[in-house]
Write a structure and sequence with these properties.
alpha/beta; 6 helices
């Protein structure tokens, strides 16, 4: 499988509007971060989008125009779901299959009622919602996907384990039960907002500690803000198996 990081930034993106810090003014393209999202593709032709935030249109313009077999939603916050309306062009391939927990799907129905009318016009996205639950695996074509519950502050949200790859974003804490579901992962993709503590997100040091506990072959840090180091600095200071992901990076998982 190939995973493409479509976006690796936090809710404000990087650069932050009006900011003149070293990261926001960096000339390194790897330091420009759209809101966090990823595309997973298999050799059998399955395409899965993970989260669909406000930068989805810009991200999609860089991709071949082809259908998604599923859109996996980690949670309902704006920076993870507000691009769903931009799925309208994909209606030529049929209804969009959206997977999320009960709270996330309920929120979508409240925010986007026009997508769920009895007679949905062709000018709006046609979303078919599928409720998923932590610890209960489901299949998308040849892939088995295991939702893993993590805590985003006090909010329970979902990460996903797909084979030996785990994708976790907006994580602050994780239970022993959920940690056990991650045993044996070889590729860990996990949020690491910055070094300074935050009430609802892991720090970079937290993410390193999680990686040291799970012992994956490689760890990629996402959902970074402008207080995280530049890509060049990170390559000097991070352990060799821990990397700052960046927009457009492709990895084999």
């Amino acid at each position: 499988m190939t995973l493409t990081f479509l976006g690796t930034g936090t809710s404000c993106g990087v650069p932050v509007i009006g900011c003149g810090c070293e990261v926001c003014t960096s000339n390194d393209a790897r330091d420009k971060r759209l809101r966090t999202s990823a595309l997973l593709e298999t050799t059998a032709g399955t395409h899965i989008l993970i989260d669909c935030g406000p930068d989805f249109r810009a991200q999609a313009l860089e991709l071949p125009f082809q259908p998604f077999d599923a859109v996996l939603l980690t949670h309902e916050h704006y920076d993870h779901v507000s691009g769903l309306d931009d799925l309208r062009p994909y209606g030529v391939f049929g209804p969009q299959q959206i997977y999320g927990n009960a709270r996330t799907l309920r929120t979508l129905r409240e925010r986007m009622p026009y997508c769920f009318a009895k007679e949905t016009p062709s000018t709006v996205p046609h979303l078919e919602l599928h409720e998923i639950s932590p610890g209960v695996a489901f299949r998308i074509n040849e892939l088995e996907i295991l939702p893993v519950e993590v805590m985003h502050g006090t909010l329970p949200i979902l990460g996903f384990r797909i084979g030996n790859c785990a994708y976790l974003t907006d994580l602050k804490t994780i239970s022993k039960e959920s940690m056990a579901l991650l045993n044996g992962v070889e590729t860990l993709i996990v949020n690491a907002l910055r070094y300074k503590p935050h009430p609802t997100h892991q720090t970079i040091e937290d993410a390193i500690a999680l990686s040291q506990h799970l012992k994956p072959r490689d760890t990629y840090l996402i959902h970074l803000n402008h207080d995280a180091p530049t890509q060049e600095e990170a390559e000097r200071i991070l352990p060799p198996h821990i990397h700052l992901a960046y927009d457009g990076l492709q990895i084999k998982v």
